[in-house]
Amino acid sequence: MELSARLSSKGQITIPSAVRKALALxxxxxxxxxxxxxxxxxxxxxxxxxxxxxxxxPADKRGASWSEILRAxxxxxxxxYGRRRNRK
Length: 88
Description:
Layout: H1 17-22, E1 31-36, E2 39-44, H2 66-87
Antiparallel strand pairs: 1-2
């Protein structure tokens, strides 16, 4: 499908109805523009709630608070940084 639209003096474009239907866009939805050279691709942004459960969580991290996860990550990275430094 290839459709055209006109850019307004305010830099706005109305997304043609056929494109809105094809992407299932509704009022309030967000879109993203990816620019590649002299072309741009419009895409529907992912609904973050629909991504829930799509990434496996290690058993030792399940049920931990965000602050606990950050602390453990910083400690692990600090240990790794120290090991790399000692090798030099």
